[in-house]
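Subject: Sanity check before I submit

Could someone independently write out the structure tokens for this chain? I want to compare against mine line by line before I put it in a report. The sequence has 115 residues.
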Amino acid sequence: MSGLTLPESAARFADATWDDLAPYFEDLVERRRDPSDRRINRVYLTAVGKNFAAGIEDFRESVAREVLDGIDEAAIGAALDTLLRIKIRLADQNGVKLAEAPVPRDEEKVGVARI
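---
Independent answer below. Compare away.
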């Protein structure tokens, strides 16, 4: 059997640079120089990458709908609130800064599109 296990792939790519990873993503993303700072390269999805990402999002939404079928929006919202509080508490306890500030559920639409 070929292929890597998850731990093998994590170890293989842990210290990878963009040049190491680029061949795996060559049709999905492209690198462009930042127009305001030529030292910086930014990564953008190509048309193929955008279609691929849209397919992943469609699949994610269909799985969420299937899993949450028959559960009312209020129960989903309450569960998401609880999970968000747990995430924030764990991050705080471990000195981890979250990549983006969590949005309280009462400030956004609750539903499968946000799960």
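---
OP: Matches mine. For the report I'm noting this point. The beta strands are 29-34, 37-45.
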